[in-house]
Design a protein that fits this description.
By secondary structure, the chain is of the alpha/beta class. Helices cover about 40% and strands about 20% of the residues. The chain is elongated and about 70 Å long.
Length: about 350
């Protein structure tokens, strides 16, 4: 097939004509392909424009870049159909015509960033992993605050919720009723998804795209899927924050990819004793391990904690009742900037994730 061609598998005649017109404007000839014959084109490294029924027919991602078009606003179920084919975009025509035209202009030279490909393994961003040094210390809260602070600074950030034993970022950030791609959809696709499409499809809040689990649909995260998604995310995002557990496969898989692991604990004897064990475990797979210490009442001094855990204390975090109230109300994403954790998050970003 000529490099100046684009394959089009769109059943609706009006929508197909719209795509053909845009392709002509971009200097491409539109070659019509019946949905039932798409399988023969999967191995062809040429751009492909398909509709949602065709996306559901494909067994996996084609070699070339993929654009999905629709005449109606996509639902969460539509995104589930799009993710397995590795589509970079799902556009509504005619509303998204300028974006579709730009995609077609770039189509002949586009190289989609596939999860698990060589392109996905090239690092460009930074990965910060927040790990609970003690249950209830606030690792998930710190992860959310870091992502929100990064998005406020840089315009966007990606938060991966990998702690399947915790309460979940969905409830913490109050996005349980927001449509979007969650881990079950990624798992349905076997992890073979386009990271740009996945990020665009994820529920978002405050400029943060959140790949989280569905509180109503518990998910076990296979290590190979977590590793593939995390690797591709770091290759395409300036900053990725991961909320991980120190023991399960999700934490064990993400932590070796981390630039910095932040172990969050409390400044009492039991908290420090627990953090010592966690730091020792995390250090086996991550070279840069630092402590964030929650303070309340009479506590151990930072230098004592650092010496016991053999890890530097990057920040101290003062306990406040307002934080618990915000979390319980599902309003953390709205109130976080007025809380002490906002200052802690900004300091950690300055130290561990300063822009290049």
């Amino acid at each position: 097939m000529s490099e100046s061609s684009v394959r089009v598998a769109v059943a609706d005649p009006a929508l197909a004509r719209h795509v053909a017109r845009l392709a002509s404007m971009a200097g491409l000839s539109a070659v019509t392909v019946a949905a039932e014959h798409l399988g023969a084109h999967v191995g062809v490294a040429a751009p492909l424009v398909i509709d949602l029924p065709a996306a559901r027919e494909l067994a996996g991602p084609p070699r070339g870049p993929v654009l999905v078009v629709s005449s109606a606003e996509p639902s969460a179920q539509d995104w589930r159909a799009v993710l397995p084919v590795g589509a970079e975009r799902l556009l509504v025509l005619p509303e998204d015509e300028p974006v579709a035209l730009e995609w077609l202009h770039r189509a002949s030279s586009m190289r989609a960033c596939w999860v698990g490909t060589d392109a996905g393994r090239r690092r460009s961003g930074r990965l910060l992993c927040c790990v609970a040094g003690r249950g209830g210390a606030g690792a998930s809260v710190l992860a959310a605050a870091l992502a929100l602070a990064a998005a406020r600074r840089d315009g966007r950030a990606l938060l991966l919720d990998l702690d399947t034993d915790g309460g979940g970022q969905e409830l913490l950030l109050g996005i349980e009723h927001v449509d979007g791609c969650r881990w079950p959809a990624v798992l349905d696709a076997g992890g073979a998804v386009n990271i740009a499409a996945m990020t665009a499809a994820a529920p978002s809040v405050g400029g943060v795209s959140v790949i989280t689990r569905d509180a109503r649909e518990p998910a076990t995260l296979p290590g190979e899927v977590v590793r593939a998604v995390t690797t591709a995310a770091v290759a395409t995002q300036d900053l990725v924050v991961a909320d991980v557990a120190p023991a399960p496969a999700s934490g064990a898989t993400a932590l070796p990819l981390a630039d910095t692991a932040l172990v969050v604990t409390t400044a009492d004897v039991r908290g420090v004793a627990s953090a010592v064990r966690v730091v020792s475990s995390v250090r086996e797979v991550c070279n840069d391990v630092r402590l964030v210490v929650r303070r309340s009442g009479r506590v151990l001094r930072p230098e004592v904690i650092a010496e016991a855990a053999r890890a530097p204390v990057v920040a101290e975090w003062q306990w406040e009742r307002r934080l618990a109230d915000a979390v319980d109300a599902g309003a953390f994403a709205v109130r976080w900037r007025g809380l002490a954790v906002a200052r802690v998050a900004q300091h950690v970003l300055d130290v561990c994730a300063a822009p290049a």
